[in-house]
Sequence to fold (131 residues):
Amino acid sequence: MSEAKRRVFVVDDDPDFRLQQRLQLESAGYDVVEASSLKEARKLLPSTDFDVALVDLMMEDTDAGFALCRDIKAKSESIPVILVTAVASETGLDFSVTSKDERAWVRADVLLDKPVRFEQLLREMNRLLKD
Fold:
């Protein structure tokens, strides 16, 4: 009997980013569920099971990713959330999730800068999904 695939919830308003992540994640053995906005993700959230979320910070609103991180953690604190953003390069705003206080308000477990290196994403997912 084969082991069930892990499922990744990819939420980003950039269709090229979603396609790239889907192709790479599926080739690495993951199932992928996608949403293109906070609104679409919120519709899927109650009925969609997933093991980890990959969330863009800036979608239809500049803080949409923060809102979605809170929604995901409200569904289950145990679901790891990886927040991806180009905010530092686009705005100069710099923040992290390295301290407990930062994670408490950001509600993400990892912050990755775009462009995301797939090897780094896999490394973080493996770390977060350890059984």
